[in-house]
């Protein structure tokens, strides 16, 4: 930007508006290492006791099992979304087929319409294929939910790959599949990466689906684990402990985000435009 | 032979873990009995609990649809209606010997509660009362003497002391400054059977005695809604009260910040173990729920949980599960749950178990409240009425609609959904 | 290999872009498809290489009818305007790609890649990524990749459009050299007349999906068959003066201006509408006739200077001459005009 | 030839099609189907059985079934006679036990299971396990009550066998009425329409969507524009900050808001210190509850729109901004005349996209106010969810819930189609350039 | 208005791009900033209009020091390379924008907009959106918008770069006409020598943030002060031959080749290193010396033909001549060379 305008008033205004976020997240950090009761602005003694859940399953139950489950859960979703979205996005962006228009419109409509309200239907489908109350089922549903978005994003990325590369590949004698795999896919790596990140963040935080579709599964994910810690009916409710677990749960996302921020942003710029 | 029996329990917090643990103990006993008999049988129990009811019932229902329901379900007796109708339950009477120990000593009225359509579907797991509580120090602050306080339960029972008397008293407490404004009266903060007690206080009945159909008494409903609106108008409870967190409620009532409230007998256990309540009897006076007006009566509702046998699994599994339920109903084992969680005994013999008999609270509850207790119907359609009733209560309480409109809304909803399956008066 | 388009027709969404075009490219020849933007040059090229389906006619490679074969089976090499190098592969891998696809052996690939790299002078660049190359180098890589599989025909779509002036000059001769060296049949699509004239054996000039003239560059410049062609070639462009044949070998405009007609046009009926094309280099550089006018615009261009001379109200001729600064804006000048090199066109645009 | 290229397209698309059909299309179709049923917990989802119960027969008396027949049908008895003995034998009852029964009780009838079982228990060869005893006793039962018949024919058959004198219409009537599964009905919509509560929720939903949306768009715009004018480092810091709500797992995010607004929470304490009313801001009053709901969702949405707007801002050719500055525009004039016009499409996009997400999202509300205080912040999607799947009474009304969901689906699809038009969908679809 | 840069210095992130540049643009003059990409032309322009802050020195508009004023207060008109029209406004609104900002009255705005539209010949386009205009029309609108507020100076950053060849030719004279008509002081940034030469009164040639020479186009072409300037101007470019002064008015290359030196250079010490610049138009077009060589490249360009003649192994000269096809590749030719028009530079690159 040019420096024809002044900046300080803007920064002040922004700070005021961001106050709730700053406060909430600052105390999220502070409260995990102090004993301040909710609402007290000045933290008292420093303590690591709220982190004892890391080694002491007695505090809130074993956390490493759910952590591992969540990692698996997230990884599977990411893998499925990437595989399917990268092929379907390519088809919609580049390949000749009847009803292409219809498919694309369908993806767009679905993309805009989250499915949680149709959960009974989803339940029946899962039950029908025998995956109700299994993590596999939830993985499939969650991946399915993200697909329209993923396909849409990938289509956007494919659209930016010059046709000439594809034409050159075909001229060089490669089949469309080879062209896709060896020439086009490498061009949309940033898209794949961004989508993977996005899917990972989304899957990592998922709460509704495991809760409804796998309530008693043997594998608990962290969101459900965290919710048991936060149960407002429980009289042992402890904000500080909850926040520690919550922070533990959120850190991977924050880390991913902080490290790959720019890459992640491409998805918002690239995908959701009109 | 290794058999795994799954048990799910709803509305279960740490103090009521014996709902599951009793089954585990039973499994141990059953395995040992088998070993003594020389049978090769090892029974494992997989328990899962939910602290709330919404998630639990959702999970059970969906699991049942996908044939993965647990073998034993611990839920409120009112679920027997819909669940038996949908084929989720086996009638437990086909699996257990009611003439033999320990089931033959269970209170027959509790068994009646677990009976639907002429069949016994579940074995009661606990019983309870849902008393009204007064703060003794605050009563004294507005001029009650010790004797008057002691006489209060009787005055309530006789109908002399009504809900409106209570409103006046807590208002006085607030005016006196011993209770903060808006904390005079602290009803249960969320939906629950308790609210049917107020309906009864104003003369409402849940079933029509003649036809056996569900009954909606508009007058009682109107009076009951009006009562809470009056309470709001008096300033003893906020209009936005419903939905308050349990924690805030526990904190207030256990630390003597409220004037009067109501809850379950089991809450005493929670206040003592989790909220540091030292002198329950010195601080709190329990009574029945007072009558609301001349039409109604002082009452309390017992909402027994029952062990239910699901249709999941083989008949053999069900047989074993049923045996576990029988064993878990042994007085000594069940008394662990009753005393630990502040619930009431399910049978005569249990009342004699020292752990239970020596407990002052359970004794009071059993003797003073249980005789006046009734329960909600098992009718599969009762949930519709209940949901409508609570919606109407929320609407009028928050003043989003007038009492009359709220009652009309309930009537419309119940009538359109259930038609003539319900008698509306 | 000789390439022939027979009644080639192409339409997009029912809109016919090219209607029954016929064109033959001789074996080993480099032919330019020259025309303004949107005239169908790229469409023709894409039809030849099999990216577009043709809607009618035939495309023959030698005797083989390839009209309905997909690109993969046609064996053509294409150099795209933006090179279309595979950005994630090294130069080596880019060039090797067509061979890898054919499952050629490793050592054979290596041999062929190095051979073509040597020919295109990019031996030192093989390890780099396309992004690390200058435009001209990328162009060479694209050329190498197109040639490595020994295609029957080489197609170039505006190969120099993305290069800067200096590189363009250099790559022009470079591409021509390689084409001559390999003896491959080639088609060059361009809208730059200099490119077409300097690189190709013959030029096919196109307008609105039609081929107007096919000829060698010199013939086409000297003897354009139509007014369009005359106007398209030449920089600064030719100036046309419209009028009718007047008394004896002159052109008379409506305003009464008279200009000499080439002697070869004697015998045209008096009064016939005619359009005279005068190239700037034919004014002021000797000749047997003269024109007089006022200089209305002077543009020094370094080596040369461009003048606009108003010879009558509203009619200006253009003259280009070696740089001179003796003439200023507004001067009246009388310059020679080479009447026999003037071009003349009939009302139908055809050369007379 | 052309077929071949189509096949490639479908091959690439098919995995997505499978998943989308399974998890989008089928649920939508199922929801549409359920919306026209009275499906609930007690009817079950996957179908019912034919069960004749005592209560049913009592009820049927009102419906015109002759009391005599009803009473006769509701009889249960245990009778030891040749027929039942033969039945027991066929069922594999221990012959010695059977012989004993025949000897002791032949010709006797018992009125209820318990008395019969008590008698059986006295026999020497009784099975040791009570279950086996009951199974054996069951063979002597004469009753049609409480048996689950899978088909209507079986039920009809059972009645005919049990009481052959019942007229066929009555049998039909009873069998019809005994069906426990769901039935087709359009009552769900009538009920929704008739219920005043529905309209309150509709209003709530409109209010919620409109206010949250405005918050989202205005704050998003404000953030995008301000950060646009700031040095990259500051801009990055703020945009990272504002993205936190969107990234934080919802369970944690909801509780952080509780911490912030709860009794004794941050706002409470701060308000108290400032002498302002201190109470539970999330649930303690309707205006604050709405404010909190709007903020909770608005903060998430603001991050989203900020990113989109920022992207659009970056796409403004910087020369245009320079040009406007050279032309003399102040900052406000630059925003007003250059920047905002550029954001027209992004704003429209955010508006439409967020409308749809807000309409159908409820997790945040569910986990925070849960529609409270009272039902003042209840919105359509949450009510649908509660009706269909999640309520205290456990009375899950799938049919009604599906009807509510269907309304959302229809609204959503309609809006989407409008938006597709609006966004010149055709421009998104370029024709494949390789025609083979 | 006279514009003066005094010791103007600009750095980006500590990296100095322009170091103490001095330049004066006279009132009413049009000056070209000509130089290769990245030499700092745009940077200079942006400093003048206030988009960049300067790191040192002064910028004077007449007597007014504007060095630290924001753009809004400088009253300059700028035409950006891509026009930077506001796409959401009509042409009218685009032009009116600078006036609207100043809260000029409606009727006054209308008058001024129409006046400037007339001058730029876009009266009929006022209702259209920029997207509905051709490149040349957009260019005119941008010009109109820059001029409407009567700026003290008009800055043009590569204004023709995005136009096609024909339009470029046309807009060249158009911009010049308007500049002359308004008499405004103007700075034209370009890397195209023809543009600079044909449009401007003077050219300032830049390289790496430095101004090498400021002169009129003709002077600069004829008498470049440095080898860089000589090489930068001229198309086809000049060819340099390096060597030393040999026996009597000749240049001797290392390989023993001899070339005549201009007569004005007599008296240079024997053996002094020297670089001779030979422009293609000075070979084969008359002159007092001759060179002999073999034609190694022929490029017909329509009106002219370009030849590369190898006069010694590894040394080729270039000649451009009116189109001729009597010479073929490989022919040996002997052509005249105009020795007095040859350019010569010393080892330091300065003209001798
Ligand atoms: N895929 C397509 N769909 C519809 N019309 C097309 C398509 N491709 C080209 N056209 C039309 O066909 C005509 C010829 O296009 P073509 O690309 O061959 O022109 P060109 O001569 O290569 O022009 P340029 O020099 O601009 O590349 C144009 O009018 C163009 O609009
Ligand atoms: N914003 C900037 N930040 C850092 N370096 C810059 C910036 N703008 C220009 N430069 C550098 O300053 C030098 C001069 O750039 P400038 O844009 O003035 O060149 P130019 O002569 O206009 O070139 P071109 O013809 O390519 O536009 C270049 O080396 C460029 O990399
Ligand atoms: Mg083209
Ligand atoms: Mg520049
Ligand atoms: O446990 P309850 O919800 O029934 O009080």
UniProtKB/TrEMBL annotation, chain A:
<dbReference type="InterPro" id="IPR000515">
    <property type="entry name" value="MetI-like"/>
</dbReference>
<dbReference type="InterPro" id="IPR050901">
    <property type="entry name" value="BP-dep_ABC_trans_perm"/>
</dbReference>
<feature type="transmembrane region" description="Helical">
    <location>
        <begin position="12"/>
        <end position="30"/>
    </location>
</feature>
<feature type="transmembrane region" description="Helical">
    <location>
        <begin position="241"/>
        <end position="260"/>
    </location>
</feature>
<feature type="transmembrane region" description="Helical">
    <location>
        <begin position="102"/>
        <end position="129"/>
    </location>
</feature>
<keyword id="KW-1003">Cell membrane</keyword>
<keyword id="KW-1133">Transmembrane helix</keyword>
<comment type="similarity">
    <text>Belongs to the binding-protein-dependent transport system permease family. MalFG subfamily.</text>
</comment>
<keyword id="KW-0812">Transmembrane</keyword>
<keyword id="KW-0762">Sugar transport</keyword>
<feature type="transmembrane region" description="Helical">
    <location>
        <begin position="191"/>
        <end position="209"/>
    </location>
</feature>
<keyword id="KW-0813">Transport</keyword>
<feature type="transmembrane region" description="Helical">
    <location>
        <begin position="63"/>
        <end position="90"/>
    </location>
</feature>
<dbReference type="Pfam" id="PF00528">
    <property type="entry name" value="BPD_transp_1"/>
</dbReference>
<protein>
    <recommendedName>
        <fullName>Maltose/maltodextrin transport system permease protein MalG</fullName>
    </recommendedName>
</protein>
From TrEMBL, chains C, E:
<dbReference type="InterPro" id="IPR027417">
    <property type="entry name" value="P-loop_NTPase"/>
</dbReference>
<dbReference type="InterPro" id="IPR003439">
    <property type="entry name" value="ABC_transporter-like_ATP-bd"/>
</dbReference>
<keyword id="KW-1003">Cell membrane</keyword>
<dbReference type="InterPro" id="IPR047641">
    <property type="entry name" value="ABC_transpr_MalK/UgpC-like"/>
</dbReference>
<keyword id="KW-0547">Nucleotide-binding</keyword>
<dbReference type="InterPro" id="IPR008995">
    <property type="entry name" value="Mo/tungstate-bd_C_term_dom"/>
</dbReference>
<keyword id="KW-0762">Sugar transport</keyword>
<dbReference type="InterPro" id="IPR012340">
    <property type="entry name" value="NA-bd_OB-fold"/>
</dbReference>
<keyword id="KW-0472">Membrane</keyword>
<dbReference type="InterPro" id="IPR003593">
    <property type="entry name" value="AAA+_ATPase"/>
</dbReference>
<dbReference type="InterPro" id="IPR013611">
    <property type="entry name" value="Transp-assoc_OB_typ2"/>
</dbReference>
<protein>
    <submittedName>
        <fullName>ABC-type sugar transport system ATPase subunit</fullName>
    </submittedName>
</protein>
<dbReference type="InterPro" id="IPR017871">
    <property type="entry name" value="ABC_transporter-like_CS"/>
</dbReference>
<dbReference type="Pfam" id="PF00005">
    <property type="entry name" value="ABC_tran"/>
</dbReference>
<feature type="domain" description="ABC transporter">
    <location>
        <begin position="3"/>
        <end position="233"/>
    </location>
</feature>
Automatic annotation (TrEMBL), chain D:
<feature type="domain" description="ABC transmembrane type-1">
    <location>
        <begin position="202"/>
        <end position="419"/>
    </location>
</feature>
<keyword id="KW-1003">Cell membrane</keyword>
<keyword id="KW-0812">Transmembrane</keyword>
<keyword id="KW-0813">Transport</keyword>
<dbReference type="InterPro" id="IPR000515">
    <property type="entry name" value="MetI-like"/>
</dbReference>
<dbReference type="Pfam" id="PF00528">
    <property type="entry name" value="BPD_transp_1"/>
</dbReference>
<dbReference type="InterPro" id="IPR051393">
    <property type="entry name" value="ABC_transporter_permease"/>
</dbReference>
<dbReference type="InterPro" id="IPR035906">
    <property type="entry name" value="MetI-like_sf"/>
</dbReference>
<feature type="transmembrane region" description="Helical">
    <location>
        <begin position="242"/>
        <end position="260"/>
    </location>
</feature>
<feature type="transmembrane region" description="Helical">
    <location>
        <begin position="206"/>
        <end position="230"/>
    </location>
</feature>
<feature type="transmembrane region" description="Helical">
    <location>
        <begin position="289"/>
        <end position="316"/>
    </location>
</feature>
<keyword id="KW-0472">Membrane</keyword>
<comment type="similarity">
    <text>Belongs to the binding-protein-dependent transport system permease family.</text>
</comment>
<feature type="transmembrane region" description="Helical">
    <location>
        <begin position="398"/>
        <end position="423"/>
    </location>
</feature>
<protein>
    <submittedName>
        <fullName>Inositol-phosphate transport system permease protein</fullName>
    </submittedName>
</protein>
């Amino acid at each position: 930007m040019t420096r024809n305008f002044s900046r300080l008033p803007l920064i002040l205004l922004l700070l005021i508006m961001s106050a709730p976020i700053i406060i909430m997240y600052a105390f999220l950090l502070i409260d995990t290492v102090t004993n301040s009761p909710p609402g007290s602005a000045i933290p008292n003694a420093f303590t690591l006791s709220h982190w004892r859940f890391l080694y002491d399953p007695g505090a809130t139950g074993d956390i490493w099992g759910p952590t591992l489950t969540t990692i698996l859960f997230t990884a599977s979703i990411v893998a499925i979304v990437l595989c399917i979205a990268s092929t379907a996005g390519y088809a919609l962006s580049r390949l000749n087929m009847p009803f292409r228009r219809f498919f694309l419109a369908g993806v767009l409509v679905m993309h805009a319409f989250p499915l949680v309200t149709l959960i009974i239907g989803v339940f029946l489908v899962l039950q029908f294929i025998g995956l109700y109350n299994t993590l596999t089922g939830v993985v499939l549903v969650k991946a399915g939910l993200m697909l329209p978005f993923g396909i849409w994003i990938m289509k956007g990325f494919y659209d930016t790959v010059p046709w000439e590369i594809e034409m050159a590949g075909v001229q060089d004698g490669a089949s469309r599949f080879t062209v896709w795999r060896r020439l086009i896919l490498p061009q949309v790596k940033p898209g794949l990466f961004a989508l993977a990140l996005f899917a990972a963040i989304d899957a990592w935080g998922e709460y509704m689906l495991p809760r409804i579709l796998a309530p008693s599964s043997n594998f608990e994910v962290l969101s459900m684990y965290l919710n048991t810690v936060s149960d407002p009916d429980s009289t042992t409710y402890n904000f500080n402990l909850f926040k520690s677990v919550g922070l533990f749960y959120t850190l991977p996302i924050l880390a991913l985000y902080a490290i790959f921020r720019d890459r992640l942003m491409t998805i918002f710029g690239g995908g959701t435009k009109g | 032979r290794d058999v795994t029996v799954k048990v799910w329990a709803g509305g279960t917090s740490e103090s009521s873990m014996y709902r599951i643990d009793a089954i585990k103990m039973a499994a141990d006993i059953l395995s040992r009995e088998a070993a003594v008999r020389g049978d090769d049988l090892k029974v494992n129990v997989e328990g899962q609990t939910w602290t709330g009811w919404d998630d639990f019932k959702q999970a059970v229902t969906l699991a049942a649809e996908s044939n993965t329901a647990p073998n034993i379900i611990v839920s409120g007796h009112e679920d027997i209606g819909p669940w038996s109708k949908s084929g989720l339950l086996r009638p437990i009477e086909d699996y257990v010997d009611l003439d033999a120990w320990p089931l033959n000593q269970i209170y027959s009225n509790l068994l009646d509660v677990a009976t639907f359509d002429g069949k016994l579907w579940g074995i009661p797991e606990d019983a309870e009362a849902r008393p009204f509580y007064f703060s003794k120090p605050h009563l004294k602050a507005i001029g009650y003497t010790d004797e008057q306080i002691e006489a209060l339960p009787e005055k309530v029972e006789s109908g002399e002391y009504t809900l409106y008397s209570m409103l006046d008293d807590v208002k006085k407490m607030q005016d006196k400054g011993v209770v903060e404004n808006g904390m005079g009266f602290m009803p249960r903060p969320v939906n629950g059977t308790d609210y049917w007690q107020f309906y009864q206080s104003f003369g409402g009945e849940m079933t029509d005695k003649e036809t056996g159909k569900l009954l909606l008494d508009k007058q009682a409903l109107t009076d009951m809604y009006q009562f809470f609106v009056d309470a709001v108008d008096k300033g003893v409870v906020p209009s936005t009260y419903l939905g308050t967190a349990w924690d805030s409620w526990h904190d207030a009532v256990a630390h003597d910040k409220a004037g009067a409230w109501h809850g379950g007998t089991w809450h005493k256990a929670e206040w003592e173990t989790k909220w540091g309540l030292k002198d329950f009897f010195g601080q709190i006076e329990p009574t029945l729920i007072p009558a609301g007006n001349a039409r109604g009566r002082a009452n309390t509702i017992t909402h027994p949980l029952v062990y239910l046998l699901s249709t999941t699994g083989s008949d053999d599994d069900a047989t074993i599960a049923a045996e576990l339920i029988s064993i878990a109903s042994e007085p000594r084992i069940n008394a662990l749950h009753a005393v630990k969680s502040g619930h009431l005994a399910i049978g005569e013999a249990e009342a004699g178990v020292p752990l239970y008999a020596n407990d002052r609270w359970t004794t009071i509850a059993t003797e003073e409240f249980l005789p006046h207790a009734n329960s909600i119907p098992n009718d599969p359609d009762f949930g519709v009425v209940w949901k409508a009733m609570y919606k109407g209560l929320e609407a009028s309480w928050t003043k989003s609609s007038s009492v009359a409109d709220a009652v009309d809304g309930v009537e419309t909803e119940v009538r359109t959904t259930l038609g003539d399956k319900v008698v509306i008066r | 290999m000789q390439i022939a388009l027979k009644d080639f027709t192409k339409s997009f969404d029912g809109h016919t872009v090219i209607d029954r075009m016929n064109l033959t490219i001789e074996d080993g020849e480099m032919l330019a498809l020259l025309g303004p933007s949107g005239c169908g040059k790229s469409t023709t090229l894409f039809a030849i290489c099999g990216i577009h389906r043709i809607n009618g006619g035939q495309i023959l490679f030698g005797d083989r009818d390839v009209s309905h074969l997909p690109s993969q089976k046609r064996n053509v090499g294409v150099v795209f305007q933006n090179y279309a190098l595979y950005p994630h592969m090294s130069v080596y891998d880019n060039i090797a790609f067509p061979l890898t696809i054919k499952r050629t052996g490793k050592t054979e690939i290596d041999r062929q890649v190095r051979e073509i790299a040597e020919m295109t002078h990019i031996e030192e660049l093989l390890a780099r990524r396309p992004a690390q190359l200058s435009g001209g180098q990328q162009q060479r890589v694209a050329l190498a990749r197109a040639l490595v599989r020994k295609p029957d025909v080489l197609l170039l779509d505006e190969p120099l459009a993305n290069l800067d002036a200096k590189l363009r000059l250099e790559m022009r001769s470079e591409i021509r050299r390689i084409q001559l060296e390999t003896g491959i049949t080639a088609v060059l699509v361009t809208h730059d007349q200099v490119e077409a004239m300097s690189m190709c054996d013959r030029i096919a000039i196109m307008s609105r999906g039609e081929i107007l003239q096919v000829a060698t560059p010199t013939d086409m410049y000297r003897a354009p068959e139509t007014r369009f062609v005359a106007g398209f070639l030449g920089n600064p462009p030719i100036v046309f003066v419209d009028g009718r044949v007047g008394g004896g070998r002159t052109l008379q405009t409506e305003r009464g201006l008279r200009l000499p007609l080439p002697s070869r046009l004697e015998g045209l009926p008096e009064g016939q509408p005619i359009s005279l094309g005068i190239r700037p280099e034919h004014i002021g550089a000797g000749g047997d006739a003269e024109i007089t006018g006022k200089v209305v615009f002077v543009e020094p261009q370094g080596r040369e200077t461009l003048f606009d001379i108003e010879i009558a109200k509203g009619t200006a001729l253009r003259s280009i001459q070696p740089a001179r600064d003796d003439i200023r804006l507004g001067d009246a000048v009388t310059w020679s005009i080479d009447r026999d090199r003037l071009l003349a066109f009939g009302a139908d645009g055809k050369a007379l | 030839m052309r077929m071949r290229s189509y096949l490639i397209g479908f091959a690439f698309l098919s995995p997505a099609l499978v998943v989308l059909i399974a998890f989008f299309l089928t649920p939508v179709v199922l929801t549409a189907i359920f919306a026209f049923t009275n499906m609930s917990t007690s009817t079950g989802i996957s179908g019912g059985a034919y069960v004749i119960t005592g209560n049913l027969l009592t009820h049927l008396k009102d419906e015109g079934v002759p009391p005599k027949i009803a009473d006769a049908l509701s009889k249960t008895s245990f009778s030891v006679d040749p027929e039942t003995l033969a039945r027991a034998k066929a069922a594999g009852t221990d012959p010695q036990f059977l012989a004993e029964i025949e000897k002791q009780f032949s010709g006797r009838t018992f009125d209820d299971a318990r008395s019969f079982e008590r008698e059986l228990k006295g026999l020497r060869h009784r099975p040791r396990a009570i279950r086996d005893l009951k199974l054996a006793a069951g063979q002597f039962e004469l009753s049609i009550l409480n048996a689950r018949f899978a088909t209507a024919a079986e039920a009809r058959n059972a009645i005919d066998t049990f009481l052959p004198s019942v007229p066929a219409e009555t049998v039909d009537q009873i069998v019809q009425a005994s069906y426990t599964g769901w039935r087709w009905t359009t009552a769900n919509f009538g009920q929704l329409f008739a219920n005043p509560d529905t309209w309150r929720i509709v209003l709530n939903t409109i209010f919620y969507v409109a206010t949250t949306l405005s918050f989202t768009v205005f704050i998003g715009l404000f953030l995008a524009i301000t950060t646009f004018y700031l040095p990259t480092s500051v801009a990055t810091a703020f945009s990272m900050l504002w993205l936190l709500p969107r990234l934080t797992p919802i369970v944690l995010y909801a509780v952080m808001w509780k911490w912030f607004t709860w009794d004794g929470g941050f706002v409470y304490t701060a308000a108290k210190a400032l002498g302002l009313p201190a109470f539970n801001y999330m649930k303690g009053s309707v205006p604050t509850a709405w404010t909190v709901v709007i903020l909770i969702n608005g903060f998430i949405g603001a991050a989203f729109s900020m990113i989109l707007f920022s992207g659009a801002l970056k796409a403004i050719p910087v020369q245009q901004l320079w040009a406007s500055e050279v032309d003399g525009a102040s900052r406000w004039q630059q925003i007003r005349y250059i920047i905002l016009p550029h954001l027209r499409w992004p704003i429209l996009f955010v508006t439409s996209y967020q409308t749809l997400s807000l309409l159908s999202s409820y997790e945040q509300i569910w986990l925070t106010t849960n529609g409270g205080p009272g039902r003042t912040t209840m919105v359509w999607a949450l009510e649908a969810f509660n009706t269909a799947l999640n309520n205290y009474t456990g009375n899950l009304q799938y049919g009604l819930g599906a009807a509510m969901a269907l309304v959302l689906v229809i609204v959503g699809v309609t809006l989407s189609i409008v938006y597709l038009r609006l966004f010149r969908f055709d421009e998104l679809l370029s024709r494949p350039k390789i025609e083979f």
